[in-house]
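Hello again, I could really use a second opinion on something today. I owe you a coffee for this, so here goes:
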Amino acid sequence: MGLIHKATNDCEFSSFFSESCAPGADEGSSLCKLCVGKGKDNVGGVKCRASTEELYYGNSGAFRAWWRVVVMLPL
């Protein structure tokens, strides 16, 4: 995110990305729109939480998200 801030002098990353999953961001923002929490039913209301309860959190979560977009979804 540092490169975006340097290029735009703006910290409102939700205005730069239309949809994303950035665990720890405000759950109502576009930065949490693609987060899934614990999965399909989001049991326990943990969507976008900055912890391993969010399936797309951390390095392994980023790989899960990449796998879902690049490998599993048809083009």
Notes: The chain has a mean pLDDT of 80. Residues 2-72 form a domain with the D-Maltodextrin-Binding Protein; domain 2 fold (CATH 3.40.190.10). The first helix runs from residue 2 to 8. The chain has one domain: 2-72.
